[in-house]
Structure formats: C-alpha cells, structure tokens
C-alpha cells in the first residue's frame, strides 16, 4: 500500500502549508508542534474556539479562524491534521480527500517526532482511561521518564513539542486510529470491544472492530500486543486475522496463559518471557472484575518494560482511581456515594453494577445514544432497589425498568437526584451515579455532571 505521507519531509518542512481541522486539545496541540517544526500552520474550526485554546494559539502566533471553514485556503494545504471529534463524512473532510490531500490524526502527527521514544498505546470500549492512568502510575513510580497523553492527559503532540519524554502512555480512541498511517506503539493494549460510536461507523459493528485493531497494524516482532483473551469480540476477530507480526501477551480470568497473565484462585499470575510474578487480587487498589482485567493489562505492560515486581506491587496497591470513574465521594449516615459520571454508555454502567456488593440506588439518564438497556436488566434486577432518573427525557429508561425495580423516580438536576436517592437509601446502601448516557441535556460534559453530583452529596 502506498504511504500517503512519503512525499512530506517532516524533518525539514520548509513552511509547507498544514491545516488543522478542529481547535480543541488535540488540534491545538498538533498546531503547536507543527509550528515548532517549521510548517506554515493554519487552524480552522466550524464552531467557536474555547478561550483557553485561543490564548494558546495567540501565544504561539498560530493563525486561526472560528465558526467557519475557508475552503480556498484549506484546499491548498499539503497536509491536514484532523481532530478526533470530527467525522470523516463531514463536508469539509470529504472535499479535502477528494482533492487528494492526506488527512491524518494528531497521534499520527506526534508519532513522526517521537524519535527513539517508546509508546504504550491503550484502547478499548471501556476501561481505557483507568488502565492508562494505572500504567502511567506504575511506570512513574518505577522511575521512568514518562508522560500521560492522549484522551486522558494533555495532547500527545503538545507533550512532544513542549516536554518530550522517553516513554509515552497514551489513551487512544478508535477515532484517532482511523487516521493513522505509520503510528506504531511498542506496546499495544486492547482491553475489550463492545458496541459504541456506531453512528461514526455506518452502524456497522465490524467497521468499529477493524478500527480498534488498527492499533497493531504497523507493529513488528520487536513489539507487544496485550489483549483480553476472554472478550468474545476480540476472540472472534483473532480467528479472522493474523497477529504473527507482533508478540501476543493475552490475559484471562478463565484459563491459564502460557505467556501473559491469568487468575489462579485469588492470585494474578504473570508469565512474561523468563519473568514469573504472582500477586493477590485483594492487594489491588481497584476493585471489581472489570478493574481486575484493567490491572492485569497494566501489570503485563509494566513487566514487559522491565519494572521490578516489588515496584509494581506497591504502585498497584496505592493507585488512586480517576475522578468520575467509580470515584468514592463520601459516606453520609451509612450510605456510600459513588461518582461514575464517565459511564456514558450501557456497557460502562454494566461494569459499574457488576462491582457493586451492597444494595444500590442507581442514578441513570441523560442523552440516549441508542441504548439497549436489556444488557443491564439482570444486574439491575439483582442489585438495584431503586432507579433515580436524571435527564430531560426519561421515557426509555422508565419503559425498560418499570417491571424490574419497584421504585423509579424522575429528577432534572444533580441536587434533586442526590436528595431523592438519599431519601430512598437505607444505612448500608450505595448511591451510584452511573448514567449510561451522554450529559449534554443538563450539563456541559460528564465532568460537570460528576462535579455537580459531588457538590450535592457534600451539601447533604
């Protein structure tokens, strides 16, 4: 296959015109790196640009426009870096591609300037933020010169431009993988694949699966592929493709693994080349079956890069979970409150419920992304004593669970949702915010939703 970037001299671009489409964290980071390396950079965003990003563009003297796309200027570009939030079927991207201008993602652009640095790239439908943060934590505690980048940290490109490191631990989405060419992680981690973002993939699940597997397409026999051997979608895809070009390191809770990780009773067993490590899962800071999988993946990566088992044990034990991802908020009169606002799809809520060990008041709702609530019906029946809806339109949730739980309450704010949940809870119960929906009906984003939830809990 012809390399669409072969004609571009990244080491000496000599003012070559480069357009960035989208001016969020990813786009502005790419613009800063491109300006630093000698491209003639122009940033274009169809929407208003946030003030903090405008400030950065002014600071680095980068030309930009907002609330429009100047097609004449854009279509004269030699290269386009597209932000992950912009779909390939948007009109401007279609016109760029029709003109034959290469379109790449910010992670591909950053990769061009990584040199000898190594990348641990982590993807999956659920758990990638937690796994990325834990992997970074272990490497950092192990004394590595490492940065946390991608969807979770600062822009990969911005980190490369302003503070390059020997190691990058990167959370990578399918949208970023869609526009790679040469991007090649030293360690690729694929946690799981469940239906998500199908509106970006022509409602064809296989297209989304193919996108996730692009994380290994440029790997060689010097690289490693860590994946969940219990995930049925990954298992099926591995029957159809070859992974002999990389070094597979699977992990499983169901069966013994010769080279990778598996559970034996309550012990996680690691076998990486000559290394043999065992750890009690009760020592993991992250609880729940899904987090055991996440921890196994992070531990394989850490062992592969040579971190001592004592350091891994310490780091896994003292890791603090992420804000808005199964975040313990407070216990009020014997009732625990947990903020899982980052659960914006049904699968994420499934994982949250699966880890609950106490009777649960579940706060659900927001902007529905075509949710199939039947996926969590059994867990709701088993663990949930009441559902508190928090959204502008709760009809679908009520229809899905009216015959499953005895109590369903409607609310339209975080304050009301917390108050109603507390009223329904008894000592020893858990109130779990795990909405299974996007947040844009009542909140700016999932962080705003989680923060308002935490404030409401503190005001009880």
Automatic annotation (TrEMBL):
Keywords attached to this entry: ATP-binding, Cell cycle, Cell division, Cell shape, Cell wall biogenesis/degradation, Cytoplasm, Ligase, Nucleotide-binding, Peptidoglycan synthesis
A Pfam family this chain is assigned to: Mur_ligase_C
Pathway per the UniProt entry: Cell wall biogenesis; peptidoglycan biosynthesis
Keyword Amino-acid biosynthesis: no
Reactions listed under catalytic activity: UDP-N-acetyl-alpha-D-muramoyl-L-alanine + D-glutamate + ATP = UDP-N-acetyl-alpha-D-muramoyl-L-alanyl-D-glutamate + ADP + phosphate + H(+)
Residues that, per the record, bind ATP: 124-130
Stretches assigned to the Mur ligase central domain: 122-302
EC number: 6.3.2.9
Compartment(s) of residence: Cytoplasm
Mur ligase C-terminal domain sequence ranges: 324-437
Main location: cytoplasm
Coiled coil location: none
GO molecular function, one term: UDP-N-acetylmuramoylalanine-D-glutamate ligase activity
EC class of the enzyme, as a word: ligase
GO BP term, pick one: regulation of cell shape
One annotated Gene Ontology cellular component of this protein: cytoplasm
Function: Cell wall formation. Catalyzes the addition of glutamate to the nucleotide precursor UDP-N-acetylmuramoyl-L-alanine (UMA).
Family: Belongs to the MurCDEF family.
Name recorded for this polypeptide: UDP-N-acetylmuramoylalanine--D-glutamate ligase
Organism whose genome encodes this protein: Hydrotalea sandarakina
């Amino acid at each position: 296959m012809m390399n669409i970037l072969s004609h571009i001299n990244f080491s000496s671009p000599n003012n070559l015109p480069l357009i960035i489409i989208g001016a969020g964290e990813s786009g502005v980071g790419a613009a800063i790196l491109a300006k630093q390396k000698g491209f003639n950079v122009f940033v274009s965003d169809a929407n208003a640009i946030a003030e903090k990003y405008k400030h950065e563009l002014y600071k680095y003297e980068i030309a930009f426009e907002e609330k429009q796309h100047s097609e004449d200027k854009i279509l004269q570009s030699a290269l386009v870096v597209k932000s992950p939030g912009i779909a390939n079927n948007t009109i401007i991207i279609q016109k760029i591609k029709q003109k034959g201008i290469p379109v790449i993602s910010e992670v591909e652009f950053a990769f061009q300037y990584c040199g000898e640095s190594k990348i641990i790239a982590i993807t999956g439908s659920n758990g990638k933020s937690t796994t990325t943060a834990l992997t970074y934590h272990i490497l950092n505690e192990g004394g590595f010169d490492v940065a946390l980048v991608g969807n979770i940290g600062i822009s990969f490109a911005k980190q490369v431009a302003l503070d390059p490191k020997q190691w990058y631990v990167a959370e990578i989405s399918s949208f970023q993988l869609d526009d790679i060419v040469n991007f090649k992680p030293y360690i690729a981690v694929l946690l799981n694949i469940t239906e998500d973002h199908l509106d970006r993939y022509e409602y064809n699940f296989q297209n989304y699966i193919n996108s996730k597997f692009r994380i290994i397409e440029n790997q060689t026999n010097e690289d490693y592929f860590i994946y969940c051997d219990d995930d049925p979608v990954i298992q099926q895809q591995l029957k159809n493709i070859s992974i002999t070009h990389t070094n597979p390191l699977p992990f499983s809770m169901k069966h013994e693994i010769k080279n990778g990780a598996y559970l034996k009773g309550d012990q996680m067993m690691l076998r990486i080349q000559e290394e043999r490590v065992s750890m009690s899962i009760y020592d993991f800071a992250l609880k729940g079956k899904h987090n055991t999988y996440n921890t196994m993946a992070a531990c394989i990566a850490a062992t592969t890069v040579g971190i001592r088992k004592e350091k891994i044990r310490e780091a896994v034990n003292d890791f603090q979970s992420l804000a808005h991802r199964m975040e313990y908020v407070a216990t009020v009169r014997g009732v625990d409150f947990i903020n899982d606002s980052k659960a914006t799809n049904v699968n994420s809520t499934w994982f949250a419920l699966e880890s609950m060990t106490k009777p649960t008041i579940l706060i659900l709702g927001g902007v529905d992304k075509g949710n199939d609530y039947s996926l969590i019906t059994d867990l709701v029946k088993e663990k949930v004593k009441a559902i508190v809806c928090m959204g502008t339109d709760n009809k679908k949730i009520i229809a899905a669970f009216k015959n499953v739980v005895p109590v369903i309450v409607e609310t339209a704010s975080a304050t009301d949702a917390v108050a109603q949940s507390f009223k329904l809870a008894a000592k020893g119960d858990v109130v779990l915010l795990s909405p299974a929906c996007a947040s844009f009906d009542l909140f700016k984003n999932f962080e705003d939703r989680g923060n308002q939830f935490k404030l409401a809990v503190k005001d009880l």
